[in-house]
Amino acid sequence: MARLTYHGHATCTLETDDGTRLVFDPFFDENPSCAVKSAEVEADYILVSHGHGDHFADCIPLAVRTGATVIGTFELVSYCLEKGAKSGHGMNIGGGYRFPFGRVKLTPALHTGSVAGDTDGTHTTDCCGFLVEFEGRRVYHAGDTALTMDMLLLKGQVDVALLPIGDNYTMGPDDAVRAVEMIEPKVVIPIHYNTWPVISQDPQAFKAKVGNRAAVEILAPGATYEF
Ligand SMILES: [Zn+2]
Questions:
Q1: How many angstroms separate the alpha carbon of residue 15 from the centre of ligand 1?
Q2: Gap between the Cα atoms of 161 and 131, Å rounded
């Protein structure tokens, strides 16, 4: 079984059958929803969707300590390597690459970009999501994004979709339902909500709106979904 653990906000860890540990959008220490500290986390790969602090804050310290390979857009990975990350693999949107654990493709995400800590602004970067295929399973982490027609291109390619529902900074519940209609995943896990009052949402109401379009797995921070 693969184990996907939600740590609150957009932060997730995914452990594959063979024990490879992937961390998506590491935001542990300052994440109000997360009980785990980054110093307790182990990682082989870190997949970071963009440079905003609520996705990137613990990326470099985690990469430095664990030696994990950072995967993301070219500019953001270059920044991590300049700041001491031991390993990185820069990509760009629409491109895929086969890693030892499986294939990662960067998907479009409609959002703004800056890199927390990049004081001269030279690493301003576009945002992305991730389509990860491993051991016959397909997981889509949307990153921070609006609803976009590009999601239609993912139709039939996703088993488990992690979709933001918080509104304000990303798509909200109604647009996330439309994303489900476009992508047709088997399972949806809502993310990027209830971290702060401005993105307060009721995941049960979202589940009801999704209805029979997909199974909705509501994970409390710290909970694990096995598949
Ligand atoms: Zn965010």
A1: 23
A2: 9
